[in-house]
Amino acid sequence: MGRYGEDLAARWLTAHGMRILDRNWRCRFGEIDIVAADADAFVVCEVKTRRAGPYEHPMAAITPTKARRLGLLAEHWTAAHGGPPPGGVRIDVIGVQLPARGAPVVSHVRGVT
């Protein structure tokens, strides 16, 4: 389910003008789901996928602790790839809800930290 949500998120980002630079990048501090280029900025994307139902929205899974870890991962990714671009680095969250019927719903929140 998680991989399917990440694939949907990657397609959503490219459909909205971004270019995918990396997927499932890992270091000792954790994993970045997607890194994309948006004009002259890098975008680190956390993707959360949930089945629709009585559960909380996927975005609710991003706690302040998780947001801080994403910032740390973004620093490590940019250091490993030549440093930050002129437009800086932004952290986004993409929530994917999978209803019992119908098309998945993709929500994108820019600049969560």
Structure characterization notes:
This protein is of the alpha+beta class. The mean pLDDT is 90. The radius of gyration is 14 Å and the shape is globular. It has a 5-stranded mixed sheet with strand order 1-2-3-4-5, sandwiched between helices. The protein has one domain (2-109): 3-Layer(aba) Sandwich (Trna Endonuclease, Chain: A, domain 1), CATH 3.40.1350. The protein is built from 2 helices and 5 strands, in the order H-E-E-E-H-E-E.
End-to-end Cα distance: 26 Å
Number of domains: 1
CATH topology value: Trna Endonuclease, Chain: A, domain 1
Strand-residue proportion: 35-45%
Number of strands: 5
The CATH architecture can be given as 3-Layer(aba) Sandwich
Protein name: UPF0102 protein ACFP4F_02695
InterPro entries: Restrct_endonuc-II-like, tRNA_endonuc-like_dom_sf, UPF0102_YraN-like
Pfam family, one: UPF0102
Family: Belongs to the UPF0102 family.
Short description:
Helix content is 27%, strand content 39%.
Tags for this model:
113 residues, alpha+beta, Trna Endonuclease, Chain: A, domain 1, five-stranded mixed sheet, 2 helices, globular, UPF0102 protein ACFP4F_02695, tRNA_endonuc-like_dom_sf
Task: Give the helix/strand layout.
Layout: H1 2-15, E1 19-27, E2 30-38, E3 41-51, H2 64-80, E4 89-98, E5 105-109
Parallel strand pairs: 3-4
Antiparallel strand pairs: 1-2, 2-3, 4-5
